[in-house]
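Quick one from the shared queue. A colleague (R.T.) flagged Head-to-tail stopper as missing a structural entry in our internal table.

Convert sequence to structure tokens.
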Amino acid sequence: MLTVLPSVMLGHTVAVEPYLGNSAYGPRFGPAVLVRCFLDEQTRTVRNPAGQEVTSTSTFYARPGLVCPAESRVTLPDGRVTRVIARLDRSGGGMPTPDHVEVQLL
């Protein structure tokens, strides 16, 4: 049985522009997608995909299936624009805990 984050926990909405790679003019992003999520604006130290310690200013939690690779652009509810440090799949492994995606932000 698949258990996902309940709707009652998804009280925030962020806009995610997936990172598509670099071009001669700089980074390229896909069209913005509105994502319902739970936003935790807490500063903490995390590791980026290269294994380096960096400071994350916010983390949001969303339902599985979100396309949001590192370097994607995210607009928070207050209008602040930030970038994705890492996107992590969090699975309950068959236990009755909600499967979700954790997205760490700069």
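The chain has a mean pLDDT of 94.
Residues 7-53+63-105 form one domain.
Added to the table.
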